[in-house]
Amino acid sequence: MTADNAAEAPNIATIIPVFGIGSYDEAVAHYVDWLGFNLDWEWRSAPGRPVIMAISRPGVGLMLNEANTSAVGSSLVLHVAISRPSPTNGTHAARSRLLSTCSPRTTSRASA
Which of 51-60's residues contact partners 24+ apart within 8 Å by CB, and which partners? Predict the structure, then answer.
């Protein structure tokens, strides 16, 4: 990109990743109830069909898609920065449980 093109290039303010989910109820329990995301909106093409939903927290937005649309063999590496929890505010035990279920390098979950 040249200096002339840089002034004309669109400004990308944010990127919102789309994650596949296996279960609406499990996703709400994890992202909304446990991690504290807000459920901004959800959409289904008809009752009982897979859901697409948008969730957010200050500074973070995600979309969750219950439909199986991911390519076979695709992968995503995501690094999440979190603040150090305090042993007195209840998040220390939750963080310890989370870290005990993850490997130090990567975690993968086989899709059904």
Answer: 51/24, 53/24, 53/27, 54/16, 55/31
One-letter amino acid at 20 equals G
Sign of CA dihedral 106, 109, 110, 111: negative
- CATH topology for 11-101 is 2,3-Dihydroxybiphenyl 1,2-Dioxygenase; domain 1 (3.10.180)
CB 37 within 8 A of CB 64: no
Phi, psi of 100, rounded to the nearest 5 degrees: -70, -20
In whole angstroms, give the CA distance from residue 49 to residue 42: 12
Q: Could you tell me the residue ranges of all domains in the chain?
A: 11-101
Q: 5-30 pLDDT, tens per residue?
A: 666 777 777 788 888 888 999 999 99
pTM: 0.57
